[in-house]
Amino acid sequence: MRIITFLLVLTSVVSQAQLRLSAEQLDFSDVVTTSIKELSMDITNSSNSPVSIADVVVYNDAFTVDYSNAEIASGSTTKLKVVFSPTHNIIHNTEAIILVSNGSQYSVDLIGAGRYEGTYYAGTFNKSYQALKDELKTILASGYTNLGYSAARDRMYGNIDNVNGKVTCVYTGRVATFNTRSGANSSSFNCEHTWPQSLFSSREPERADIHHLFPTDVNSNSRRGSFPFGLVSSATWSEGGSKVGGGKFEPRDAQKGATARAMMYFAIRYQDYSNFIDGQESILREWHKNYPPLEWDSTRNANIFTYQKNRNPFIDHPEFTERIGKIGANDVAPEIKSAEVSVSSIDFLTVKPADQRTVYLVNSGNTDLTGIGNITTKNGDLKVIDFSSSVKVGEALALIIGFSGLTPGSYEDELQIDLNTQIGESISVPVTFNLVASNIEREVISKFFSFYNSVEKSLTLRNVPHSIKEVSIYSINGRCIELDDISSSFTDIPFRGYSSGLYFVIIKTENKILTSRFLVD
């Protein structure tokens, strides 16, 4: 049964094959997230007429595609260029679906791994949700130096937040000239604990962790108190853009992003004391996104590392929040079952009764799809010949579509795909085509066969007709293998260098397509 399925897939490839791809997968290996890598492949028009590429669809933003020429003349080749530019240090696996103007589709597997520069965050590779939070907690505690509260303020006032002898209140923008704790006192400045001390009983090292400490005007610090952060619509106090009202404190815009990242750091590094971050997480994420780290944030982060020997990961890699569902609470990874078709509607233009076409369904979730339900057609004009009942994450499921048993004419039908997802998702794809009578008899002649000589490493063909127009060999997954020096009078084909497995020989004559298979051991 397995061989029959492969033969059906191969037949569909041959019967729709206008394009020949030089690779079925582009593997980018490891790419640092601050760089890009480009790979390319050849797309050859093996038909007798021009072919137009309508689009190339990719299901992962880390990959972008470009092709030099959408119109490919008969026998000509164009380049498909794919650029891998990862942001996250995870494995990226997806498909590029090449759409031809006549409705034909071809798939290319894209895979690559994003890597962060340096080794500090190496342990976070390919981790998300609670696993990522746990790893970050380990990293942030490793080698940590507790300066103590007095020394932490000395560093903050004298170095980290001191610019040319001046210190700025992060809430009001007021500037004062000092560089010591006594100077701060005389200038009515003190130290703001973004995560209020009262919630963790002023214990160390939390109290002295500079990643959530900031210099503030005494009055603004008092106004903030232990209020949670949020948007204030009706203020009872405001200064420099910061305001209090309705039991919330809203920092000025210049501090919103830093406040959000300090809060998220603290919850990951220590814990969500009193579930303090839970009610604020939504607005903090919004501020984190709308006010991304500036050069000042990065410089401050590096300076704190000099003393404390740890960093704020949300400054170094703001994208970490995209892989964390809940900052405070236990973060169970959701099971996302999702699939997408390559196009919302298909026009196969002109087809013949024996033709077959492939439509791809890509698993765009984070869970393998198994037990895919019925794949049917609304009117019964299209024939669903073959499909797999499962598809792995990032991979494509091929639906083999046929047109047999119909009289010539124009047709409108609809593919109906029931998916085994958590919401019982169903996908409908309208399909149109114009069926014409076939002028080529397509058959499999049992007396034609092939024999692979493992000693000579060559393929011997038997009972082959003389009127050969084209010979090609395909791997079991439908990839056409290039062969040299094929003529109309041959019996042996050199076949060195190919891996073991099942292969198919396709011979086209004036009025027939002959198929056979052979095994390389």
Describe the sheet with the most strands. Answer: 5 strands, mixed
Structural class: alpha+beta
Shape, please? elongated
Strand order of the largest sheet: 2-9-8-4-6
Q: What gyration radius follows from the Cα positions, in whole Å?
A: 32 Å
Mean pLDDT: 87
* Unreliably modeled segments: 1-16, 440-447
Total helical elements: 9
Question: Could you estimate the helical fraction of the residues in percent?
Answer: 10-25%
Q: N- to C-terminal separation?
A: 21 Å
- State which percent range the strand residues make up: 35-45%
Number of DSSP strand runs: 32
Folded structure, characterized:
The protein is of the alpha+beta class. The chain folds into four domains: 1-123, Immunoglobulins (Immunoglobulin-like), CATH 2.60.40.10; 129-323, no CATH class; 336-439, Immunoglobulin-like, CATH 2.60.40; 449-520, Sandwich (Immunoglobulin-like). It has nine helices and 32 strands. The strands form nine sheets. A five-stranded mixed β-sheet has the order 2-9-8-4-6, with no helix packed on it. A four-stranded antiparallel β-sheet has the order 1-3-7-5, with no helix packed on it. It has a four-stranded antiparallel β-sheet with strand order 18-20-23-22. A hairpin with a 4-residue loop joins strand 28 and strand 29. Helix 6 (253-269) packs across helix 7 (281-290). The protein is elongated.
